[in-house]
Amino acid sequence: MLLQGKTAVITGASRGIGEAIALTFAREGADVVIHYYAHKSDPEKNLRSEAEALAARIREMGRTAYLCGFDIADREMVDAELKKLLTAVTPTILVNNAGITADNLALRMKPEEWERVIAVNLTGAFWVTQALMRPLMKNGGCIVNIASVIGQMGNIGQANYAASKAGLIGMTKSLARELASKKVRVNAIAPGFIETAMTQAMPEEARKALMDIIPLKETGKPEDIANAALFLCSDMARYITGEVLKVNGGMYM
């Protein structure tokens, strides 16, 4: 098993790519901390039930699963919940996967559309990384940030999303340099058109336009990203840091 004895914290793990990463890591021997979205004052908006279902599947594999809920854009919640988590586990892997979209043309983009996407996709990833940095340094762990092909090539109507993912790539490279002396590797994955609830909500016309620029002429699966994350977090990638691994079917080379 490639991750035997490891404990992985995965943000946004209750569905989509995060869920696939959690299951793949568990199959390879890791215990998993499942982060899910939890609203500060409205429990109806929480994704705990999905996280609990995932935890049950992981426990059936004989691995330990922990639940950790917070709004990743709320620094107070991040710090409080991760402080509690660290009394129970010592993470050796962090996957910053949580992300949202709020698409609009730049001319029409509302302040809240810009600010929320940046807060979740970029700033929130930094808060989580900062909160877990000391235990990761202590154990020579690794960090994988889930960026996007959009952060590399841009896209109409996604200035906020593109900026957040490009920022995540820049953060990856800076952290890779800062943490190398502590034997912490930091890499990013830039997924292309992956079949998730987020991409399934796209208009059919937009989906067809994307397929026209993918040389492999097919969409990716969450498991494709999970397998890339597994590689980067395993000893097979022991000499790789500061890298952005494109998993996009040739969409952007």
Can you give a write-up of this model?
This protein is of the alpha/beta class. The chain has one domain: Rossmann fold. It is 45% helix and 14% strand. The chain is built from 9 helices and 7 strands, in the order E-H-E-H-E-H-E-H-E-H-H-E-H-H-H-E. It has helices at residues 16-27, 48-60, 75-85, 111-139, 150-153, 159-179, 197-200, 204-211, 222-233; strands at residues 7-10, 31-36, 65-69, 93-96, 142-146, 185-191, 244-247. It has a 7-stranded parallel beta sheet, with helices on both faces. The longest helix is centred in the middle third of the chain and has 29 residues, at 111-139. It is globular, with a radius of gyration of 17 Å. The model has no long low-confidence stretch (mean pLDDT 95).
The CATH architecture designation is 3-Layer(aba) Sandwich
Question: Uncertain segments of ≥5 residues (pLDDT<50)?
Answer: none
CATH structural fold name: Rossmann fold
Structural class: alpha/beta
Straight-line distance between termini:
32 Å
Number of separate strands: 7
Mean pLDDT: 95
Q: Major sheet: size, sense and barrel closure?
A: 7 strands, parallel
- One letter per element, helices H and strands E, the order comes to EHEHEHEHEHHEHHHE
How much strand content do the residues show?
Answer: 5-15%
